[in-house]
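The records we work with from here on pair a chain with its fold. These numbers are not coordinates but entries in a learned vocabulary of local backbone shapes. To see the layout at work, look at the sequence and tokens printed below.

. . .
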Amino acid sequence: MSAATDKETETSAPGAPPPAVGVEDLECRYGETIVLSGVSFSVREGELFFVIGGSGCGKTTLLRHLIGLMKPAHGIVRYFGENFTNEDLETRRDLLKTFGVLYQNAALWSSMTLGENVALPLEQYTALNRREREEIVSLKLAQVGLAGYEDFFPSELSGGMRKRAGLARALALDPRIVFFDEPSAGLDPVTSRKLDELVLQIRETLGTTMIIVSHELASIFAIADRVIMLDHDARGIIAEGRPRDLAAASDDPRVREFLTRGEEKA
């Protein structure tokens, strides 16, 4: 099976709603250096979608372009059919409210309590009063298993608890999409598995679309609905589909090596 047949072509029936995320012919550069080129894929609403590949293949670079931290050299990113890449600042701001981000190291402000950290998006994007914000903060912390931790500082928590607090902040605005940048990085296997279970629970409870950048193969096989695999030398996608299907049927040695090793470790 070639990379072309590895890829699941995403097509929408006439009149069907647009995908949660649509990426069209994306080119990502640092200066004159092309990191990714010709990247196209879509993510269905409610899907648990992984961006995988070895170190240096462009996973985090792609994420930065998806969430607007970097502007593509070419191509378009759409959310629910709306052009995120080329819209005016006001429209982009409205689209930003539809997704949350859990950064690799949680990116919590160390000088703020968990409650203050989770409240930040509410302060920035809503007109809620303090009491209303506090109620939402308590709800979001409870959703990630941190009820009662509003007054704790990040330094008082374990790594896994900080990740969950970062997820609570990402969920503060009830986003339709949540992006994760290497969520299991630095976690022990048990804590990593519990985080996977929490991600599944939130998806099932809220119907949230989840896009996860990761090279953690145990998580990929445990919870991914579908993946795209990036490759450094190809500067783009070399496979797309369900991870176990790709591991069993791909004739690309790069895909097979990456995913078969994952099955042996899982």
Remarks:
- The beta strands are 21-30, 33-43, 48-52, 74-79, 82-83, 99-102, 177-181, 209-213, 226-231, 236-241.
- The chain has one domain: 45-68+97-265.
- Residues 189-206 form the longest helix (18 residues).
